[in-house]
Write a structure and sequence with these properties.
The chain has 74 residues and is mostly beta strands. The protein has one domain. Helix content is 0%, strand content 39%. The protein is built from no helices and six strands. The chain has a three-stranded antiparallel sheet with strand order 1-2-5, with no helix packed on it. The chain has a three-stranded antiparallel sheet with strand order 4-3-6, with no helix packed on it. A hairpin with a 4-residue loop joins strand 1 and strand 2. The radius of gyration is 14 Å and the shape is globular.
């Protein structure tokens, strides 16, 4: 049986984007089929698809409540 290796995930980068905002981006930005997901805690709750979805970059609020982000390959 031939098993394909898992693809390397793109690099995720978060940088300040002005007062109370941060820009999240990943490279390569297109053609990777990685989806941005978020949740309010690393220990509780489930990951949900971010409103930005497949779009990179995205600017989000950097204010309370805290949000955690990850890239997910469906």
């Amino acid at each position: 049986m031939l098993v394909e290796p898992l693809p390397n995930p793109p690099a995720l980068l978060a940088v300040p984007a002005g007062a109370g905002q941060v820009t999240i981006s990943w490279t390569p930005a297109t053609g990777t089929n990685w989806l941005l997901q978020e949740r309010p805690s690393l220990t509780d709750g489930s990951w949900t698809n971010s409103l930005s979805g497949w779009t990179s970059p995205v600017t989000v609020p950097a204010t309370l409540p805290t949000r955690f982000y990850r890239l997910f390959k469906p």
